[in-house]
Design goal:
CATH architecture: 3-Layer(aba) Sandwich
CATH superfamily: P-loop containing nucleotide triphosphate hydrolases
Shape: globular
Number of strands: 5
Helix content: 40-55%
Number of domains: 1
Order of helices and strands: EHEHHEHHEHHEH
Bound molecules: P1-(5'-adenosyl)P5-(5'-thymidyl)pentaphosphate
CATH topology: Rossmann fold
Strand content: 5-15%
Strand order of the largest sheet: 2-3-1-4-5
């Protein structure tokens, strides 16, 4: 059976850097996989990504955010993630439902049950086998963030990003077998080594 592995963390935690290295590793090992991301992964979901992250939409309410992320996710799960898993491809995904739980509920203030409920509908209850969160303090994440100018959510204040981090740690404590937290303040190589161990643990034996 193929596995579904998701990556989480604050903006700038280093997911992009680490995922690139992980994908090279999986390719070298000959592990069948696809890589995808949220928000996005299908043409429709990529268009929603453009809307929801656009700094021009500064006044967007958190409820609109939650519904847009869930709408994008429903399309992504139905058209990319489930078909890949059913055809035996392991799925590596940059962000998933946990991002909505921490950004829109823990930090955004929506009730946790509401965000969990719309995502249950959107995904048909599909959960990752493993989630790896790259953990760094918000100030380190901010200092690492891109040169391309912040998106709408990156522009939120330090308090917001601290709530996101605390939300992740609570989710990890509630589901320790699925949800692993890695200290991402180490070197790129150290973090990658830990990621590979956690991924190898859940990959199907061949
Ligand atoms: N969102 C998303 C929600 O609110 N709800 C949802 O349901 C979903 C799905 C998406 C945004 O949408 C929000 C969350 C996000 O705000 P995104 O465009 O997908 O955002 O981007 P991010 O996930 O935020 O990723 P970024 O590209 O901003 O950052 P990364 O990928 O975490 O970091 P990366 O690898 O680009 O690294 C940043 C810099 O740090 C350096 C890198 O070289 C790079 O310069 N770096 C290191 N430096 C020192 N030591 C290390 N170990 C380093 N690792 C990386």
């Amino acid at each position: 059976m193929a596995v579904f592995i998701t990556f989480e963390g604050l903006d700038g935690a280093g997911k992009g850097t680490q995922l690139k290295l992980l994908l090279e590793y999986l390719k070298q090992k000959g592990v069948p996989h696809i890589f995808t991301r949220e928000p996005g992964g299908t043409p429709m979901a990529e268009r929603i990504r453009g809307i929801v992250l656009d700094p021009a939409h500064a006044g967007m309410s958190v409820i609109s955010e939650a519904l847009l992320f869930a709408a994008a996710r429903a399309d992504h799960v139905n058209n990319v993630i489930r078909p890949a898993l059913e055809s035996g491809q392991n799925v590596i995904c940059d962000r998933y439902v946990d991002s909505s739980m921490v950004y829109q509920a823990f930090a955004g203030g929506l009730p946790l049950e509401f965000v969990a409920g719309i995502n249950e509908m959107a995904t048909g209850g599909l959960k990752p086998h493993r989630t790896i969160m790259l953990d760094i303090p918000p100030e380190v994440a901010r200092s690492r963030r891109g040169v391309n100018g912040p998106d709408r959510i990156e522009e939120m204040d330090e308090w917001y990003h601290e709530q996101v981090r605390q939300g992740y740690l609570e989710l990890a404590a509630a589901e320790p077998r699925r949800f692993k937290v890695i200290d991402a303040s180490g070197s790129v190589e150290q973090v990658q080594e830990r990621i590979r161990m956690l991924v190898d643990e859940v990959l199907p034996r061949r």
